[in-house]
């Protein structure tokens, strides 16, 4: 009687011991896995927030740093004194955007996204990459200087497809608040591609997508030329989307918001975060495909009724959809010049084609069985998915425990 009881107690304690060990083993495994994810995602963030290597001697930078000259100071004083009159244009994670007279003032709130670039000639001081990148590609317009070729009513408000800088400085929004970087550029009345699409959707309800495409395709081709220049200089924009394409006029669009510009071989482009966001390995091809997605999204949004467009886009017979699916099939090796060439071949008035061998039309299989309402939703869903340009880092920040350890920053600024 006693022996079986003893052996069953022994057996039970052995099996609970085993279970306990398995649980401990699983916990160690989970911790190890979590630690690995922690390291990979911290590496990703460190790569993303690594500085952009910009030219160190471009026009405007050294002559205005660290102390701006009198004319610039006068303009800055005017801006600071009239802060109450600034009109909010928008607010993002990194800061706010305001309009004042013919200027746009962008502020960068300290402590949000880390500033990536070192201020040349200053010890341990960083600034938003957008400032030196805009100086390098857009140049500097000196204010109130009649000798400046950009001064006067006929002055150009853009330079080679980029926004020039009118001023940059540090100032406190309120006496009790820390100083923030400010970047001032000329105001483009047309806003962004989103603004234009909204205006068109209200004005041109009766006009079809073919007309919008015919009107704006040459402008898009010109934008690709600007992009080609950026890529040839060795840089990618890295944040092409409708909100970052600004409208100078009907025939000229601008590559705005250079805050994410990076050299082609920047470590971010080989990080896990870049891959997790389904970006193309070659950041130049990635910029080009994102520009095409932005253009098609612009056409879709500019229509009062997008159903006809969504169907045509997924069928892949119209010039604009042929251009898109062909480029997507060839996405990894796409360049701005190649897309521009293809855009000239698939021009808006080109005849329809039914043999779309190199396209991948995406009409859902169950489409014919759906009722009208579900058909419209399914088409919209498929098109919106194909045109996504969103890039997120929420999960990366979560795994990298930035709430506890902050964002990893690798660059140290020397003189
Ligand atoms: N120079 C400008 N002229 C007109 N609108 C502008 C200008 N700069 C910015 N905007 C508007 O403000 C929005 C946000 O500006 P952006 O530079 O992209 O800042 P963020 O870093 O917040 O994305 C743009 O989408 C555009 O509508
Ligand atoms: Mg932006």
Automatic annotation (TrEMBL):
GO molecular function list: ATP binding; protein kinase activity
Entry keywords, A to Z: Membrane, Transmembrane, Transmembrane helix
Residues passing through the membrane, by range: 20-38
Database matches in Gene3D superfamilies: Transferase(Phosphotransferase) domain 1
Domain Protein kinase: 83-415
KW Transmembrane (keyword) present: yes
Keyword field contains Membrane: yes
Name this protein carries in UniProt: Protein kinase domain-containing protein
Organism: Neocucurbitaria cava
